[in-house]
Amino acid sequence: MSKILVIDDEAWLREMIRLALAQHGFEVIEAGDSPEGISMAREHLPDLVLCDVNMDKAGAGYTTLARLREDPATAAIPFILMTGLADAAGMRHGMALGADDYLPKPFKIDELYAAVEARLRKVRTVREEAERKLSHLRNQISFMLPHEMRTPLNGIISNAELLATSEELPLPASEIAIMGREISQSGLRLERLIENFLAYAQIELLAVDPQGVNSLREARIYNPGVIARDVARNLADHAGRMADLVVEVMDLPLGIAEEYFKKIVTELVQNALKYSEPGTPVRVRLALSPGELEFSVRDAGRGFSAEQMKRIGAYVQFERKMQDVEGLGLGLTIARKLVELHGGALTIESGQGTGSTVTVKLPLAKKN
Question: Full-prediction pTM beyond 0.90?
């Protein structure tokens, strides 16, 4: 049984709504003003809130909505504003605060029920999609994670065991240094593997939350060129390929958080360095195109075949037996999903033996 909280200072209206919704099998709880409504929402965590815009004071419904959206426990509860003054400015203000719908007063019983049912149906759809994605994610993780974690763990354990027994058979300092580097590299590989699993899971769940997607797009960065250049240089330096890196960037405001833009740049540049030979160029470019910013990474590596291009996905690695490449192939998919969540697109141009160019197009940040 769905629980609905009705917040209104008119007792007769609350009673009418309670009786009407009870006939359709809903449990209804009531509050007579904004403070009581906020308190009851936090205590009972209803499936839906119906709230009057103007109660003890004008705009009290907006205050209620804002307070509930600020609290993680109540932020996702569907919220319908009821008002007898449904002007365009008020509706825009309510929607900006996170209202899901407006119900103009006076309303008929069938209009009330239709509005309530529409919001709850949407919540059920989102929840079912999230559960489906979680189930798919569990299956993929249970299939792939044990194998992928075993490789770096074996490197850590085997080298650690050799070091632990070195008292009986002393090892040269040079060999100890090599083992230490292998342990460090395996640890870093394991850390990145876990980070990418968590990032992928977070993105999959975020994709079915419209409010979360809208919040993502409200973020701003004003120096994407500087960020892309610094990330690319750090990665090239770590790979010993600074001489191969060619960077051409510019700065314009983008509607994306810095951490997500860094993640996109990191995955694309890292792949280019990983799949191309030292001594061949890796070109990083950030330039303006009509209404958007275009970020591209080009390498002269082995590239993808047409068949491999079709199979690019979260848990696909190509030619694993021919070339031992760490990771799950998650990086490219994480970058693509982040780009799409921000209203952009990611494309790949590639051919075997001719290298690859990955291009990301992201919309420029809108002026506030």
Answer: no
CA 49 to chain centre: 27
Kindly report, residue by residue over 318-334, the tens digit of the pLDDT: 444 333 334 436 778 88
Give the span between the Cα atoms of 109 and 151, in whole angstroms. 63
- Cα(41)–Cα(52) distance, integer angstroms: 15
326 and 240 inside one domain: yes
Domain region containing 346? 210-368
Same-domain check for residues 156 and 11? no
Residue 79 contacts residue 98 (beta carbons within 8 Å): yes
CATH classification at residue 68: 3.40.50.2300
Q: Quick one: CA torsion of 121, 125, 126, 130, rounded to 10 degrees?
A: 150
CATH (domain of 235) = 3.30.565.10
| Domains identified in the chain, total number | 3
Q: What's the pLDDT tens digit per position in 127-180? A: 777 677 667 666 665 655 556 666 777 778 887 877 777 666 677 778 888 888
State both tokens at 177: 């240094």
**Same structural domain for residues 216 and 324?**
yes
Q: Pairing mode, if any, of strands 3-7 and 48-52?
A: parallel
- State the residue for tokens 């719908």: 101
Using DSSP, state whether 132 is helix, strand or coil: helix
